[in-house]
What does this fold into?
Amino acid sequence: MLHNLSNKYGRVMLGPLKYCHIESLRNLRNRERKWFIYSDEIDCKTQRLWFEKYLKTENDYFFSVSEIKRPDFFIGAVALYNFINDGKACEFGRIVIDRDATTEKGLGFDTTVCACRIGFEQLGVQKIMLEVFSDNISAMKTYLRAGFIVNEKEYGNKLLKMELLKDNSLLYTTGKNI
It folds into this structure.
């Protein structure tokens, strides 16, 4: 959906996903597709059609990720979507960071915290949920460090559901920037 939300945290900044980003996103997503539930390869035409549909979809906030030191250089994407309970809860996902485009480590964590802060502070959600494959150890470490807790296991323990509550979030309970 068209939006103008943005935020900075740590070394990253998030802004609205734009048409100029979608080919880089497609290539990156295809390269990392084993970590996505829908893991088919995506061609250029399908990506353009998806983006046109995305722009018309309510309550689907897709963000481009860039480093603060290189604000015009796309290094990844993340989204907040599937809002429920009158907008008090949403899903976090579609996160992908191009490790080949940066020498920095830990940008997935900065991106996760930044997106969650947008959800809590700008969109007013109280709970953010996600699904992650249990063998995606790097993502699991990132989400646990950001304060997510495992809520339930599905599909023979292969897919984990996690959640982060604003009231219990380390983002707010410690009084520190994590």
Notes: The two ends are 30 Å apart (CA to CA). The helical segments are 22-31, 44-55, 107-122, 137-145, 170-173. The first strand starts at residue 7 and ends at 9. The chain has one domain: 7-173.
